[in-house]
């Protein structure tokens, strides 16, 4: 990096600071960690660890652009603290990206897919940099970096679930190996199944898809498989206080004895009773239908674009033809 000397440390006004437009970690002010940090900064009357900024000018005024410390900066603003200690660094855009990634590489709360986008931006800004060189900078293995970059193959909606913590990383890595159109079919299971169950399931599907492609065929649709997962705690508590669902299931399916009744109740708790399974299947079929409709819309739009381009080319050719050529 260009900054080789000890950075200058100043106390600057919060009004002179502008957050970076490409921040690696967003600010969730409802998050418990953010609220704890806010309380700590209020109690201390400011931050102990300086933020990092660089001097910039937008053609009209000078200001400081935030490099690292968005959470601390935001807390200071919310706490009404106007003076913030800051390390003044000299960096270009590519170096800022690297600094953000290095600062967040060991923070487990960093959003995985957003982090991967930053890695991609670094490689895009340094065309000669290899994955091995980037891994060395991050003190990680090339395999780790490659796996992170693989997350960029996730469907946008699936990627959001990963960043929200609803899909664990092991399952996300497995999902990323599927074609985008296949990922939606597995996303419900990715949220509920453990990696030792989910990863082999996806690997088997990846093998099916690859084998079908090798033979010049289209892989058959992935079959619906119900997945056991707990009902929400709030629903369980409500049922415990005022039982309505389980009595309804018992009345409908008429278990022969207490053991069968208990089994039916446990199935409901795990979303594996007949009604829950049917509801899951309907949602799965709806998602498959929506996916197929979206695929058909994209195909229709592509054909429309082709026809439009063909008409434009034909019109251009005719416009450039001589009268004799037109008669011929």
Model description:
The chain is of the alpha/beta class and 328 residues long. Among the domains are: 1-91, Alpha-Beta Complex (Conserved hypothetical protein from pyrococcus furiosus pfu- 392566-001, ParB domain); 233-317, no CATH class. Helices cover 59% and strands 9% of the residues. It is built from 15 helices and 5 strands. The chain has helices at residues 32-44, 70-79, 93-104, 112-125, 131-138, 142-150, 156-163, 169-175, 180-192, 195-214, 233-241, 245-253, 258-269, 274-319, 323-327, and strands spanning 8-13, 17-18, 51-57, 62-68, 83-89. It has a 5-stranded mixed beta sheet with strand order 1-5-3-4-2. Helix 1 crosses helix 2 (70-79), helix 5 (131-138) packs across helix 6 and helix 8 runs parallel beside helix 10. The longest helix has 46 residues, at 274-319. The N and C termini lie far apart (67 Å). The model has no long low-confidence stretch (mean pLDDT 85).
Q: TL;DR?
A:
It contains 15 helices and five strands.
């Amino acid at each position: 990096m260009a900054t080789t000397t000890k950075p200058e440390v100043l106390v600057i006004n919060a009004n002179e600071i502008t957050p970076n437009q490409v921040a690696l970690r967003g600010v969730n002010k409802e998050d418990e960690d953010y609220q704890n940090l806010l309380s700590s900064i209020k109690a201390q009357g400011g931050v102990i660890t300086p933020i990092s900024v660089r001097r910039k000018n937008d053609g009209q005024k000078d200001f400081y652009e935030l490099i690292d410390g968005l959470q601390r900066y935001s807390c200071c603003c919310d706490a009404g603290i106007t003076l913030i200690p800051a390390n003044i660094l000299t960096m270009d855009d590519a170096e800022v990206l690297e600094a953000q990634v290095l600062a967040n590489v060991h923070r487990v709360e960093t959003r995985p897919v957003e982090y991967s986008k930053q890695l991609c931006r670094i490689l895009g800004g340094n065309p000669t940099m290899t994955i091995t060189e980037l891994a060395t900078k991050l003190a990680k293995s090339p395999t780790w970096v490659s796996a992170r970059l693989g997350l960029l193959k996730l469907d946008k909606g699936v990627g959001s679930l990963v960043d929200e913590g609803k899909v664990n990383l092991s399952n996300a890595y497995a999902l990323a190996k599927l074609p985008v159109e296949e990922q939606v079919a597995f996303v419900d299971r990715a949220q509920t199944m453990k990696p030792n169950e989910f990863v082999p399931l996806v690997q088997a599907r990846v093998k099916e898809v690859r084998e079908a492609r090798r033979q010049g065929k289209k892989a058959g649709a992935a079959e619906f498989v119900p997945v056991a997962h707990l009902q929400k705690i709030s629903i369980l508590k409500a049922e415990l206080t005022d039982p309505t669902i389980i009595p309804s299931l018992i009345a409908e399916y008429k278990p022969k004895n207490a053991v069968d009744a208990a089994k039916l109740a446990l199935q409901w708790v795990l979303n594996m009773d007949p009604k829950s399974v049917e509801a899951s299947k309907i949602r799965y079929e709806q998602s498959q239908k929506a996916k197929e409709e979206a695929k058909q819309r994209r195909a229709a739009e592509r054909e429309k674009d082709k026809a439009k381009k063909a008409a434009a080319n034909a019109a251009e050719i005719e416009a450039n033809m001589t009268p004799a050529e037109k008669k011929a």
